[in-house]
Fold this protein.
Amino acid sequence: MEGKDVINLRLNTVTAMAQKSKLQTKMAINRHSDYPIKVFPRYLQSLTIDNTQLVKLSYHICSLRNLTHLDVSNNKLRKLPVELGRLHLSKLVLHDNNLGEIDDWSFLNGSKLRDSLRELDLSANDLTCLPLPVVKCHKLVNLNLNYNNLTHLPLPYVA
């Protein structure tokens, strides 16, 4: 092999490694026009979608295996997909949505989410009762229920 071929090979390897190290791990979307049309970067660890009038959480978000922090504050969510329970989220921020209208909280029954969730923000959602699956999140350290209409709390779950 000539010297220039080896140099080109080394440069290509270094360039590829540099590109791989710059993988996008954080994303913040603050306008509806910034929302990705096709897919989200697959190595995302933190995703914030704030004040975009979002009414449904995309399946693509639920397939982001590295995601540990999801913030979908100030939107119009009325339902969350069961697939969300497959993520290893440590922080889930659902502040100021329309979640008080839903009766299906089964996404919190997903064992990966239930066993990894440490922070949950359900503030300003017009909740009248704390959803029972929240009680089953045993690693939960911080639970924000401010600005709701809670009238009662569920009895603790005994397994």
